[in-house]
């Protein structure tokens, strides 16, 4: 049971309505996590603005973004977000296997692996990335712009995951049985 009340998207006006309309436009629905954040529509709007801008990347495609989000969710021990990203990732054409690998910080190809190694180090070490990891991700073909966008994705989902942990909204999506917070979390 949620520790915070959830705002009914049908019963709001003003900033809350604008925030819920944007959440629906970006995600196709107002999930329970967003209904909790709707208590502070300015926070939800801020997260959505950053998400929209980061999602407009011409260097990180939707699949890479979802793999970054999945790994960040696992490292931050967020079962709610792992469930969401499994559903979203499969919806954009990632295989369940690729998403389970991302949850573990793994990828089938060298380029994606370098980006997940970078993501892993950013999350685990709060942005303190080694020269070796930075060189490896750049040698894999990622620009500084793509790396900043990766940090943006990490920031968006870390914020959402912290809110999820505090508020504990009811889950919207099926549980991912392969996820184990103690095993996958940082």
* Helix-strand pattern: HHHHHHHHHH
Determine and state the CATH class of the largest domain.
Mainly Alpha
**Structural class by SSE content:** mainly alpha
Strand content: under 5%
CATH architecture of the largest domain, by name, is Up-down Bundle
- Global Rg: 16 Å
Could you tell me the CATH topology label of the largest domain: AhpD-like
What's the shape? globular
The biggest beta sheet is recorded as: none
Figure out the total of helices: 10
Helix content: 55-70%
What does this structure look like?
This protein has 186 residues and is mainly alpha-helical. It folds into two domains: 9-54, no CATH class; 62-166 and 173-184, AhpD-like. It is built from ten helices and no strands. It starts with 13 loop residues before the first helix and ends with a helix.
List keywords for this structure.
186 residues, 2 domains, globular
What's this, in brief?
This protein has ten helices and no strands. Helix 4 (62-75) crosses helix 6 and helix 5 (79-91) runs antiparallel to helix 6. The chain has helices at 14-27, 32-37, 41-54, 62-75, 79-91, 96-103, 110-124, 131-139, 144-167, 181-184.
How does the SSE layout of this entry go?
Layout: H1 14-27, H2 32-37, H3 41-54, H4 62-75, H5 79-91, H6 96-103, H7 110-124, H8 131-139, H9 144-167, H10 181-184
